Amino acid sequence: EVSDDADVSKKSTTSVLIDVSDVNDNAPRFSREVYAATLSESSDVGTVVLTVAASDADLGVNAVITFSIDSGNTNNAFSLNETTGDLIISSALDYETAIAYTLIISASDGGSPSLSSKAKVAITITDENDNTPIFTHASYNGSVVENAVGGTMVTVVSATDADSGLNAQLVYAIVGGSDALFSINSATGVVTVAANASLDRETTTSYRLSVRVSDSAVKGSRSADASVDITILDANDN
């Protein structure tokens, strides 16, 4: 409004429109500082692990948020949708290669200059029974005198399993051959003369056992077989 100083004052009014533009003075804020997930190593490529979210108190382009992975993405195991925040499995997982990932992710706005914030994604990989036990040899050899008493050690078989926990806990058994004459320690793989066994070289000079190693997986146990050739040595019993 404006007026003059005359005795009979006159005045005029008008409107003034003030446009207040936004300044990019707010950084995006994640909904949480740390996200966490647990995945089986058999999870399919393309699986959405979780969705991260962030907000920005600014307006317009200054509030448009883009997501990205900054570090920790070993072998590019994961990808992050820059618009939706979906974290996706992008390559096959393997517990025996990596049991966990710690990703550092960013949310950046569209301002100039851009502002950003960071969060952490902690991912734990669980083991699946995807490895079969492997004997150190396909066949083993041992010998024992014919008058050996029960419990006498003949040989030792051994195997390894690349899994973990129960999936790698091995159990040995004799599944073929003269199991009445020989025993095997289910935990150690030590083959011994069975209790009350009667060996006689003049009757049988050698035996072949079939042994099996199995893992202790709750579901889908895996196993492998090997052979054990045992030579009976002569004792001066005649």
Q: Can I get a quick summary?
A:
The chain is 0% helix and 44% strand. The protein is mostly beta strands and 238 residues long.
What does the secondary structure layout of this molecule look like, with pairings?
Elements: E1 2-3, E2 11-12, E3 29-30, E4 34-40, E5 48-51, E6 54-55, E7 65-71, E8 78-80, E9 86-89, E10 100-109, E11 116-126, E12 134-135, E13 139-145, E14 153-156, E15 159-160, E16 170-176, E17 182-184, E18 190-193, E19 206-215, E20 223-233
Parallel strand pairs: 4-11, 13-20
Antiparallel strand pairs: 1-2, 3-6, 5-9, 7-10, 8-9, 10-11, 12-15, 14-18, 16-19, 17-18, 19-20
Can you describe what's shown?
The chain is mostly beta strands and 238 residues long. The protein has no helices and 20 strands. The protein has strands at residues 2-3, 11-12, 29-30, 34-40, 48-51, 54-55, 65-71, 78-80, 86-89, 100-109, 116-126, 134-135, 139-145, 153-156, 159-160, 170-176, 182-184, 190-193, 206-215, 223-233. It is rod-shaped and about 150 Å long.
Intertermini distance: 136 Å
- Name the assembly state: single chain
Number of strands: 20
Strand fraction: 35-45%
- Summing up helix and strand content along with how strands pair, one would put the structural category as mainly beta
**Average pLDDT rating:** 93
Which spans have pLDDT < 50 for at least 5 consecutive residues? Answer: none
Query: What shape does the CA trace take?
Result: rod-shaped
Radius of gyration: 37 Å
Main beta-sheet annotation: 4 strands, mixed
Encode the helix/strand succession as letters.
EEEEEEEEEEEEEEEEEEEE
Helical residues, percent: under 10%
Structure annotation, total helices: 0
